[in-house]
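Supplementary Methods S3. Input chains for the assembly prediction are listed below.
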Amino acid sequence: MSRLLAWVLALVFVWIVNNQIHHFIDPYILSIVIFAGINIIFATSLNLISGFTGQFSMGHAGFMAIGAYVSALLSTSFFASFPQLFFVVIFLSGCIAAVFGYIVALPSLRLRGDYLAIVTLGFGEIIRVIILNINSLGGARGMTDIPPLSSFGWVYTGVVAALFMLWRLTRSSQGRAFLAVREDEIAASSMGVPTTHVKLQAFVIGAFLAGVAGSLFAHYLSYLNPQTFDLNKSFEAIIMVVLGGMGSISGSVIAAVFLTVIRELLRPLQDMIGIDLRMILYSLLLILVMILRPKGLLGTKEWIDFVPRWPKKVLRQRRPLHEG
Amino acid sequence: MTEFIQHLINGLSVGSMYALIAIGYTLVFGVLQLINFAHGEIFMLGAFVGMYSALFFGFGQTSSLLGLFLVLTLSMLVCAGVGYVIERFAYRPLRKAPRINVLITAVGVSMFLQFTGQLFFGSDPKFFPQIYSPAGYWSVGSVQLNPLQFFVLGISLCLMMALHRLVFHTRMGRAMRAVSFNHDLASLMGIPTNRVISYTFMVGSALAGAAGVLVGLTYPKIEPLMGVMPGLKAFVAVVLGGVGSILGAVVGSLILGLAEEFVVGYWAPTYRDALSFGILILILLIKPRGLFGKIQIEKV
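Predicted structure tokens for the full assembly:
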């Protein structure tokens, strides 16, 4: 009960901060904070698929694109006169993205490892090319005039909701099924875990959250372009997951915030020499992490594993997640 | 009819480019079971090395066959060197790591080459010097044929035959086949597997470098991100032809090149990239071994 209370308090805190934030943060910092929030949702959603369930997906930006475009369509048509129903738009676009997650996962999950990676990459590209060719979505010109509804409050409500969902999910019997599939699919299936079903679930939930991230993204920038959701966007999510630790929600959160901030810190340098240094840094980080610390910064640990004995109650209630 | 033959020739010439890249993929996949994502970037490096060496030696003002062969050799050598370095410093430390880690590293290497390429070469497209440009067109009936395309096709065929000789008629080739058959057994039989893997990387990279120069000749606009799509499509071609089979890689590439050219020419020009991924998904679902595949894809 007290844990639930903590999440509710977090939500209340988000909305209190939302009303005051303009007084003590300038808009530029606020935009970084909001992008960090969107990246947190995006990275943790991929972590469920790649980190917890071990299915290496390289087309995650495709689901984000679907969420973004569906929400933009909804809020410029049906919901145009009801901006207060923004959360319905977010939810619906997440659901559509989840449907696509199901459609993509159903055939892809017959494959493993490298093949799954390249097929999901292919699906991501196909989604992008199709959006690029739909004229009513703006095609290559992009989609403009999306109402800027993503406030700090909505973005971080999304973050809290996503983290709550993932945290509860990965600590349930369902979550242990995800881990079992990652560790050894054959052993898991011989223990009665319906592996295909579990993988499908991971994809659908991951796609849902990516769709949510996409709709928040669309309503923050109020402009969408298919080019945003190219391979590099998927790679960005992969880097966040790998850097933070495959199978660590806190790791993904830290990595998402870190990479968003780094990107802004590099911006002056980038303007000076005109090259996107960010991607060079990302790729170097990726190679070095894989060679020097193959499990990522936090491995499969969560932040709570690093907390000393002070909050006894929380420690006791935490079920062991990774044995051995 | 004229249009049809034109598309046919274009498709074959694009397909032969894919083939040169795809062979490198299939060789590396054979010995390491690794999709070397950085392969498309080596192709890009090949084009740039070709361009800079041609400018350095001053080829390009006049059409010279000797210049072309010099540039081609140089670019193949440099690419072989880069392939060696990548294998030695990015992949070899991970020889015992889980495959997903190696895959992630490959993605990292690929991105690193793309963006350092932008840093050094600039992100704007460059013009590849016309080292060898045969004059005029061959006309057969009403069809105009560009002799350069046939020349390029010829060079890639020669390279493929050389590769075939290397893999099936030399000691090193036999070692390569042994390693790709079973890595551990080969090493028990006294084959220096690390050296064989390095060698395989170098051969594959050299072919990709040659493809870079040849693409520069036929489509003289080169840029640091030019390797991404050909790299991925060459992989599609590999899967289409059957992973691990050199003949399969060549046939798959030609089919893919033709399919692309015809679909783009007659039906939907903007779906070029989606088409090849569509083919990939279909092949993996219907016939995951590909056309000539020997290796079972899903092993338990």
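Chain A has a mean pLDDT of 87. Chain A has one domain: 30-317.
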